[in-house]
Amino acid sequence: MESRKRAVQVFGRKKTATAVAHIKAGKGLLKINGRPLSVLKPEMLRVKIEEPIRLLGKARFAEVDIRVRVNGGGKTAQIYAIRQAISKGMVAYYQKYVDEASKREIKDILLSFDRLLLVADPRRCEPKKFGGPSARTRIAKSYR
């Protein structure tokens, strides 16, 4: 048995949500905050997490165990952070432990589908300023 396990740890972010994926050699386990993917709520957004799995095929995910911890943000932001962490983790795992050609293939598949699977979205909520009710709106000036 190896003295060191084959594993990578990668993060994904969306707004204030952060997901950390720990990917190691295994038998196809996928857990999010200690729970299986099948019990994740909301069900409509579960498809978003399954996107990297469907794109790359179940065969690639059958040889790795993925455990994701996610906190911060809302439900949708967490889902996007999870899918980004899983995608980035698979690329990192294949780069480190398999070969560069398969890593390049995985990266091209993911980028051609959706760039946000590998690249973080830089948009953040703009802070409120004085002189109005929100970040950009100002109080209307009335002359009568």
Summarize the structure in words:
This protein is an alpha+beta fold and 144 residues long. The chain has 4 helices and 5 strands; from the N terminus they run ββββααβαα. The longest helix is centred in the middle third of the chain and has 23 residues, at 75-97. The model has no long low-confidence stretch (mean pLDDT 93).
SSE layout:
Blueprint: E1 7-14, E2 17-25, E3 30-32, E4 35-36, H1 43-56, H2 58-61, E5 64-71, H3 75-97, H4 100-113
Parallel strand pairs: 3-5
Antiparallel strand pairs: 1-2, 2-5, 3-4
Percentage of helical residues? Answer: 25-40%
Q: Report the C-alpha radius of gyration, rounded.
A: 19 Å
Specify the structural class: alpha+beta
User: What would the average pLDDT be, to the nearest integer?
Assistant: 93
Strand order, largest beta sheet: 1-2-5-3-4
For the largest beta-sheet, the strand count, sense and barrel status come to: 5 strands, mixed
Distance linking N and C termini: 84 Å
Tags for this model:
single chain; 144 residues; alpha+beta; five-stranded mixed β-sheet; 4 helices; 38% helix
In short:
The protein is an alpha+beta fold.
